[in-house]
Design brief:
Helix content: 40-55%
Order of helices and strands: HHEEEHEHEHEHHHHHHEHEEEH
Radius of gyration: 19 Å
Largest sheet: 8 strands, mixed
Shape: globular
Number of strands: 10
Low-confidence stretches: none
Oligomer: single chain
Strand content: 15-25%
CATH topology: Rossmann fold
Distance between the termini: 26 Å
Number of helices: 13
Strand order of the largest sheet: 1-2-4-3-5-6-7-8
CATH superfamily: Alpha/Beta hydrolase fold, catalytic domain
CATH class: Alpha Beta
Number of domains: 1
Amino acid sequence: MSRGVDNPQLRERLGVASFQQRWPWIGGDLQTLRDTLREVDLPHDQGVPIPIPVPALPSGAAAAGALLALLDQPEGEARGLVLLLHGLGGSSSREGLRRMGVALQAAGFAVLRLNLRGADPGRHLAGGTYAARCNSDLLPVIARARALAAGRPLLGAGISLGGTMLLNACLASPGVFDGLFCASSPLDLAACSASIERPRNRIYQRWLLKRLVRQTLADPFGVSSQEESTLLTTPPRSIRAFDSAVTAPRWGFSDVEAYYREASPLQHLLSHCDVMPPTLLLQALDDPWVPASAAMDLAEGLPPEAGIRTLFTRKGGHNGFHGHGGCWGDQLAAAWLGSLVARGI
């Protein structure tokens, strides 16, 4: 664990100060909710829409379709392209994702913001919903992103579950990215699900479930009669119940236990860290959704030569990191990915 906590040597190399939470966003919950409670000042969305074909779901629960990505260009020549992924219940237009994209653009990167299967504004292009391991969707997107990068570095950045998906894609197909940044990303799905189910997180879970159920039922290609009955007659009362009824069977897992086990990157990262590109995982110790224990286990178990780095902050919440001068997490993402390009990856 000592190699990952705070990591002042890494911060010094990146030119980033330690994180200090900013009043009034004090504590993990207010850090997490800041973007919900206060409007984020963002420029007009000028992303160029790019539909990317994807195959049917492995289970056959949804046919082939397309995912909608939006391409944002920086001023001047791009240093590289960053594929940017949202988290559970998110989309390309969510405040946290857009804000990180703006920071990366300002650092000279082109940014491809992806709407995962089922997320607006690409809901009409593909049936079904996404999962923590959705490589059959992501790998075609990554191939298109590589083409759009046109010989420049291709990097990935994921918020929450989006980072989990990127890690799984790299484990399944080594070499697809030149570098990664993941913020508040679950490495152990069972532990994360149990954390969300804690009584103190009742409001969070209810909000997430409402979004997930609405997103699923809004599928213009329809849902199965069994799914419709489950979601309308006896709505799931936990993320685990939703994953058991919808996510696991749609993505071809035998049950929710198999889904959580096989789609959790932790053990795979420990045993196959050598296939990973240079990667930085950012995790707050007071994250109310994602327990830091899995990332700490990873930091403790990695060999010294591994290309994966972890950085823990005492405060910051779940993808909050709201400090003086804006979002510290966004600044860290730009500094990390910029450092990879500067040193030739």
